[in-house]
Amino acid sequence: MTTTEADTATTKPVPDDIARQIVLPEGHRDEVALFAAYKWLRENNPLAQVHVEGYDPLWLVTKHADLMEVERQPDVFTSGGGEEKGSHNPILANQAGDAFTKSLTGGSLRILETVTYLDPPEHTAVKDVANDWFRPANLKRWEDTVRRLAREAIDTRLESGVNEIDLVKDWAIYYPLHVVMTLFGVPEEDEPRMMGLTQDFFGTADPDTARADVEPLSPEAAAQQWAAAIQDFYAYFDSLVEARRAEPREDLASIIANARREDGEFWPKTFAYGWFVAIATAGHDTTTTTLAATLEALSYHPETLAALQQDPKLIGDLVNEGLRWASPVKHFVRRATRDYELRGRTIHEGDRLMLLYQSGNRDEDVFDEPTRFDISRRPNRQIAFGYGPHMCIGQHLAKQELRIMFEELLPRIRSIEVVGERKVMQTNFVGGLKNLPVRLELA
After folding, report:
1. Which of 5, 143, 322, 328 could form a disulfide with 286 if both were Cys (CB 3.0 to 4.6 A apart)?
2. Would you say the pTM of this structure is higher than 0.85?
C-alpha cells in the first residue's frame, strides 16, 4: 500500500502506481513508465511526500531547481547523518535492508567509509585526499594513455564490417573498466574480478545479478548482497593498500594508500577501501551506461551522427547531452536536519528526500523539448554528476573517457541499428542499459 501527502489546493495526490514506479527497484525496468511517472510528478506534484510500504516516507524531489537547492546545503540536508554520523543511509534501501546493515555494524548505516556517506567537514577532508588527481590539469597527463586504451577497445573487440553484438555486454562495459583500473594501478588480469564485484555491488535489486550466497526473496536481500560485495572488495584491496605502502608507484592507488591525516598518521585502511570501492564501481559503471545510451540515441538520429563525423568539435556537446540523456545515477537520499521551506512545502526535521536526477534532467523549465536528444543545447545544464559538495569527483575523467572514445569510434561508424530487445537493469540507484543488441558497421 502507498500513501501520499498533497496540498490539494495546488497539487494532486500521487497515485499509488506512480509512487511505486519510482521508489521500487522493479519500477525502473520499464523506462517508458518511469519517465512518464517523473513527468506526472513535475506537472502535478513536483515535491510530493509518499509512503511506499516497507520504506520510510520520502519526499520525491523532481525539479532541477529544487535538486540544486537541496544539494548546495549539506548542513541542512545531510548525506551521512550530520552530527549523528552513520544515522542516515544516502542510498535508498527498504527498512528491512537498513535494519540488516545496522545488525552488521552495531547500529550504523555507514557501511562504507567513502565520501557518499560523509558530511563536511569530514567529507571535505576525505575528498581532498585525491581531489587534485582528478582535476583537468592532471588528467591531461593521461590523455595519451586513455586514447591508446580507446583504440585498443575498438581494435580488439570490434572489427571492420558488420558487428552483430550486444553493445553493452560485448563491448561498452569493458572500456571504462579498463581505463579506470589502468589509471588506478590494478593488474589487467584482476579486471574480471572487479567486473564481477561491480555487478554484485550495483545489481543488488536485480534478480539477474543475484549472488548465490544471498536469499533472493528476503526483504533484506539487496542489503545482504551489498554488504557481501563490500567485504569481497575489502579482501582484495587490503593487499593493494599494503603493497602500495611498501612500494609506492606512479598511480592513483599509491596516492590514496599513502594519504595521511593532519596528525601525520595514515588514514585508516577503511577509508582507503572506501576510495577504492568508489573508483572501482561508480568510476566505470556510470560511464558504461552513458557510452551505450549515447550510441543508442545516435542510432535513431543518423543526421546527428553525420554532423559529428563532419565536425568532431561537436563531440563535447555530444558528451554533455549523452550525460543528460543517460543520467546514470538515478538518486541519492538526504535527510533534513531542521525544518525547511521548499517549493511552498514544509520539510520537517528528520524527513528524507529522494533526489531524482533523471527527472531533473528532463525538467521542462530548464530544457526545451527534454525528450528530444539534441546536442545543440546551449547551455546544457545537465546535473548527471549531482551538484554542490557531493558533485562527482570523477566527472572530468568520465568526460575525458567519453570524448576520446567518441573521437576514435565515430569516424569509423558507417551505420548503427538496434536489432533486438533492449533491457534495463532493475535498480533505482545506479545503472541503465544492461542489454542492447545492435548491428554496428565500421569502416
Report:
1. 328
2. yes
